[in-house]
Structures are given as structure tokens and as C-alpha cells.
Amino acid sequence: MGVGKVSSLAVFVLALACGLALPAGARLGLWPQESGGLLMPVLVGLIVAAVGTAGFWLVFGGTLERDIRRLRNRIESYGRGELSGVSGKPRFWMAPLARCVDQTFGKLCQKNDKLVAERRELEIQCRVTEAERQHAEAILQAMSDAVLVTDSFNEVALANEAAGESLRFGVDDARHQPVDRVITDPSLVKLIKDTRESGNLVNRRHVEHTVRDNGRSRTYDVTLCCVGNTQHEVAGVVTILHDITKEKEISEMKSDFVSSVSHELRTPLSSIKAYVEMLVDGEADDEETRADFYNVIQSETNRLSRLIDNILNISRIESGVVKIQREHISLPAVIKEVMDVMQPQARAKQITLNEAGSPLYYQVYADKDMVYQALLNLVGNAIKYTPEGGTVDVDTIVDEHSRMVTVSVRDTGVGVPPDALPHLFEKFYRVSDHKKIAKGTGLGLNLVKHIVETVHGGRVAVDSEPGKGSTFSMALPISDGIS
Ligand code: ADP
Asked: How far apart are CA 272 and CA 307, in angstroms?
């Protein structure tokens, strides 16, 4: 029996007891039979109402309760989205309520379906946007150019690692920080702010900008452009810094090279021209003077051809079109040839040119002319950058373990400052203080490096102390099976 029925039965029994007790109590004189004529009718009315209600509940309570339970189940099934669980036709008094529930649920279902579809669409869009964002960020991080994006409040919205390295800030900490707190260079900050304030969404600005940091300066080609939002307002600035320090150095080196090559070419050429003119004009009237003139012309022609050879050899090796004629050669024999050729130059400067005895039986499998050229350049430089009265020693060391033979050329010359050492073998590089000591093109050591390392798989090295002298060495692999 349901709770409703039990409570209805209880009310019914209580009301019946009251109905019987009232007249009995009045007859026993417990309360007046007529108390102003009001108490009895009110009490009777209440008892009749209670009896009526309880009686109604006794008869219909169960049905009503079942209907309400069914309606509740119906709503709960809808709530769980179980349309199949909704069955049975409601009784006539519940029909409007059930219809209302059905209609409301139907509308909710439609809305829910729409929302589910929209959510799916949004999820797909989110995934696509996230993939695109990751893609864009990967591209940004892979770029060697520094990229910095600032928003409309001049705060850093995005920056890649290259930007952090170039402008010396931590990329992770920089996000959402004011740009003037992230970048220490005030002129670059001003450029970014000015670009944003200009509000020019069409044109991009290109500026050459030099950043100085701890005595080191780097030059950048800076591109600045405004980013617009959907209302075509300036929403931020993208700043791209392309490091052109190396290009600028190379271009300076090239112009230095062009001027020194033209000078180097002009000097022997003018000398040749002058001596040829004197010969044509008959100014050399005796045999001895003519022989002197011919000698000068010959040596100047040799100098010219050496310079042109150097330029051509480097470009041939670099472009890989050089013809290499390898053979088993005795390195000491090549050293001896170089020493013989360089002796006159050394003697002219009272420089002592020594060669420590080397084991003749070691051979290298190499292009003889190239090895000769490399050694000639090293010994030539040693004489060139050593003041009069100095010493140049050529030594050979054999390392059986690594199967390498190293020829070192040690001089007591001007030496090389430590900061110049890493650049010595670069093309066109010359130590600036040495430009007044001797003429040159900055190609000799680059050619040595190409011959030894690129062509023969060896190694070049330098050790130097300014004012005391330098040791340049070239190591070549010993040829196998030859002794
Ligand atoms: P060049 O001598 O024609 O300038 P190199 O390529 O042979 O070109 O040498 C590059 C630079 O290295 C020289 O300009 C010079 O400054 C430095 N250098 C080379 N050899 C020596 C040396 N033995 N002592 C001191 N400096 C040297």
C-alpha cells in the first residue's frame, strides 16, 4: 500500500473518530452543546471536508499517484535521452501536462541536436586552428631570422628563439610584457612603436639597424609591418630582423679585395710596361742593362701570374672543377724545392731560412703542384711578415699513430693578434695592422686551406703570439704501403 493511501486512511480514521467523539463529548458535558452556535458547525464542516478528502484519496489516490509516477518516469526518461522508455497513453487529466512535457522536450531535443552539431563543428575548427597554430609556430621557430610580434598595447605577443638570441631576452618570459621592458635597445623599441602609431596597414618599412651588445655589434635588415584586425585597425606590429653582419663584412672584404687586387695587378703591370717601353725606346743600349730589364720583366710577370693563379685556383677548387693529379710524392723533396726557390727572398731580408732534416722515406699521395703551392704560400708569408734579420724554420713531424705527416713553418715575425686567428684562413681576410707591413690579397692562406683540407683531407693550423712570431702547419695523410 502506497504512502498516499496509508496517510488517507489515517486521516479518514482520525476524522471518523472526531466525528463520533464530538457529539459524545457534548452529551457527557465535556464541552457545551451550543457554544454560540459556531463551534459545532465549523468542526463538523472540517470533519466532513477531511473525511471527503481522505475518502477521495482512498478511492482515486492510487491512480493519481501512478499517473504522477508515470509522468515523472516520462520526464526522467527524457532527461536520460531515452525516447524508447516513454510509453503508455496518459489518463485524460494528465494528457495536457504530458503533451506539454512532450512538446517542451521535443524543442529541447532539437536545440540540443543543433548545439551538438555546432559543438562538433567548433571542435573540428579548434583542432584545425590548433594544428595551423602549431604549424605556424614551428615555421616561426625554424626561421633563422628573428621575428617579434607586438600587440596594440605594445606588448610582446609572440617571439621566436632567434629573436631571443639576437636581442638577448628569454622568449618564454617575454610574452605579454611591454616591449620596452623586453628589448634593451631604445631605438629599436621606438621603431616598433612608431610603426604601430603610423597605422599604415599597406606599406612595410625596411630599416638597416645596428644592435650593440657587450662591445659586439651586429647589423640587421629590419622589416616592420602593421597587422590589422577585422575592422582594419592596427592590432600590432610584426618585426623581422635579418642578420646582414656577415654580408656586410664580405662586401667590405670584397671591396678591399678589389682595391688590393687592382693595386697588386697594377704594380707589376706598370713595372712591365715601363721596362718594355724603355726597351722599345732603345734606352737599354748595352747587353747587361737589357738583361737586367728582361729579368725584371720576367719576375714581375711571374708575380702577376701567381696572383691570377691564386684567384683561379680558389674558384676552381670551390666550384669542384679542379683537375687533381695525385701521385706518391716525397714531401721532403717538395720542401727542398720550396726552400731553394725562397732562399733569394729570405736572403734579401737577411732572414735565415732553415730546414730541419726530415725522414725522406715518408710519402704522401697528393697533387705535387698543389702541395708545392701550399708550402710556397706558407714559407712566403713567413718571410713576408718577418722583419729583417729574423728566422724561418721549416720542420716535418711524422705521427705514426694517426698516419699524418705535419709540415710546420715557424717564424720570428710580427705575429697575429688572438682575435684575428680564427679568421686567417678566410678568403680576402687580412690583419688590418699588417696592411702597412706588406702587400697582399688575403687569398694565400685560403688557398692553402682548400688544397690541404678540401682536396687532400688534411688539416691546417696556426699558433701565434703578437710580436714574437707564428707557426703555421699543414698535416697530410701518409700514403699507405709506401716506405
Ligand atoms: P696575404 O698575405 O696576401 O695578405 P694570406 O691569405 O697569405 O694573404 O694571409 C692572410 C693574412 O694572414 C695576412 O694578410 C696576414 O695578416 C696574416 N698572416 C699570414 N701569414 C702570416 C705570418 N707568417 N705572420 C703573421 N701574419 C700572417
From this structure: 15
